[in-house]
# Entry
Amino acid sequence: MSTTLCPSGHASLTDDYCDQCGARIHAPATDPATGPVSERVDSVAMPTAPAVGVPPCPECGAARGGSDRFCEDCGYDFVEGVAPAPPPPEPGWEVEFGPDREHFARMAPDGVEFPEPAQARVLALAAAEVRIGRARPSDPAPPEIDLAADPAVSRLHAVLVLQDDGAYAVVDKGSTNGTMLNGETSCLAAETPVRLAAGDRVHVGAWTTITLRRGGGDASPS
Amino acid sequence: MTSFRAEAYQNEYLPVDGSEVNAVVTVTAEMGEGGPDPTGGAAEIVIVDMSGSMEERAKLLAAREATCVAVECIRDGVEFAVIAGSWDARPVYPRKGGMAVADDVTREEACRAVRQLKAAGGTAMSGWLRMALKTFDGSGAAIRHAILLTDGRNESDEPGDLERALEECRGRFQCDCRGVGTDWEVDELRRIATALLGTVDIVAQPEGLVDDFRGLIEGAMGKGAADVSLRLWTPLGARVAFVRQVAPAIEDLAVRAKPVDERSADYPTGSWGSESRDYHLCIRVEPRGVGEEMLAGRVSLVVDGEVAGQSLIRAVWTDDLQLSTRINREVAHYSGQAELAEAIQEGLEARRAGDEPTATARLGRAVQLAAESGNEATMGLLRGVVEVEDPATGTVRLRGDVADADEMSLDTRSTKTVRVKRPEP
# Structure
C-alpha cells in the first residue's frame, strides 16, 4: 500500500487529508476555502462557490455563480443588464437595552446596587456585527452597545451578527458572567451563535437586558 | 444490492481558538431493482407475553389477534416462529421449536396455534430473549427481527439477569418492543429496545395493535442490508463528544461504539431498507491557526464489512465572524429536537417527583421548541399533559387530571423528531 507524506511528516494511507492529524495533503478540484469538496460519494454542504473567472454582479458586487441569469444577492439580470426593482423597504432591526429588575433579581449579585433611575436606550442595528461590551475611557473603538455602567459585563461580552437571511444571532464571546436568553437561567455556550427573533431578550451583566425588535412604524423608507 | 450515500451538513468555519466541530450527516440507502433480497434471507420471531396479567379477556384477545396479524404480514420464504413468554419461554409455532418457512399453510397453522394461547404465570423477559436468540441461531438468515409484546413489568427475573441476556443478544438480532395498557415500565422496554436497536412504543388501546404490528413487520421485511455501521475516523488529539441519530428518532450511538483502530470506531445501526436517517456528530479538536484547515472527521458506512460511502467533516479556522457565526440549519434544527426530548424527560420526571415549578418550566420549554420546529406530533402529546396558553413563549399550566396512557405516550414518543426542512434542490 502506498503512503503519502502530510505537511507534518506523517505517512498517510489516504491522500486527501492525513489519516493521522487530518491536515490537508492534496487540494481537491476546487479551492478548499470556498469551493465544495466532492469526491466519489462525498458531498459536503458548503456556501455557493463563486465561479472562477466570472465578473461579480455590477449592481451589488456579489460573486456570480457560473451561468446564473440572476444575481443571487440582489436579483440583477445579467442577460438583460437590468437592475432589480428595489425591494419594499422593511423596517430594520433595533435593540432597546437598559437595566432590568427581573434579570437583576435572578442574578442577585453581591454588593451591586440596581441603578436608579433605570433608563433604557434604543439603538438601530446598522452593522453586520454589533458588539456588546464595556468600553474603557480611552477605547479607540468602543463597543456599539456600550454597557460601561454594568459592572458584571465583560469588555467584549457578546456580539450580534447578521445572518445570511437577514436575522441576527447572538454569540457569547467567552464572557465572565455569561449570556442568557428570555428569562432562562442557563448560559449560552461560548462562541456558539443562537438565532434571535423579534422580541427575544438577551441578558448580560448584573442587570442589563437587550431586547431585539423591528424598528417602529415610523421607520421612513430610504 | 443496496447503495448508500452520506452527505455532511455543517458550518466548517470555526472562530479563533474554536475547538468544537458540529455536523449533521444524512445517510440515504436505496435498494436496487427487485426490492429486498438480502443475502441469506430474513427471519422473524414474534414474542408474545402470556403471563397471568394477560388473562384479562380483551387484552388476551387483542394480543392473540395482533400476533396473527404479524404472522400474516410475513412474506413467503421468510423463516419465522412464535414464542410465548411467562416464567420461561415456550415455542408456540413451530410447536417443537425451530423455525418454519412462511407460506399459506404454515401461516394458517401458526395462527391456529396462537388462537389457543392461554395466559398464566410471571414475567421473566431474559428467558424470552434467550429463547429467541437460540431460535435465530438455528437459522442462517442475515436479517433477524423480533417483536416483543408485553403488558407488564419484568418482575420475575433475578436482578441483573435481563442485562446479561441483553448483552448476549446484542448485535445478534433486532427487537422492537410494544407495551399494552399502562402497567409496564417505559424505561425497562426502552432499555431492551435500545440494546437491540429497536423502537419502543405504547399501544394504549388494544385495538391499535393490529396496524402497528403490520407496520413493524412490513418495515422489517423491507430491509435490504442486514448489518450496517457508521464508521467515524477522527484525527490525533480529537475527542468524540457525541454521536447520535437524530432522525427519525433520537438515539445515542456512543454507547454502542466499537473501536476499530486508534483513530476509528464503528457505531452499529442495524438493518436498512430504502430510507434515510440523520446523525448529529460533535467532535472536539485541537485548535489550529487562522486560515488553517483540518479534517475533523471522516464518516463512512460499513455494510457487511465493506465500506460503502463516505463524507467529510472539516474544520477551517477564521477570524471572520460573519463566517464562523453562520448558523447551520441542520445542526441548529437537530440541537433543538434533542433539547425538546430532554425537556420532556426532565419535565415528566419533575412532575412525578411532585416538583411543579420545574415540571411547568421544562414542559413549557418543550412546548416552545415543539412549536418552533413544527413538531406537531409531539405538540399533540404535550397537550395531553399541559394546557398551552402561549406556545411562542412556552407559557403552560400542568393538567391536574392526566391519564396514565397520555403520560406514557409522551414519554415513549418524546424522542421522535421531525426532519429538517430543506429547500427543494
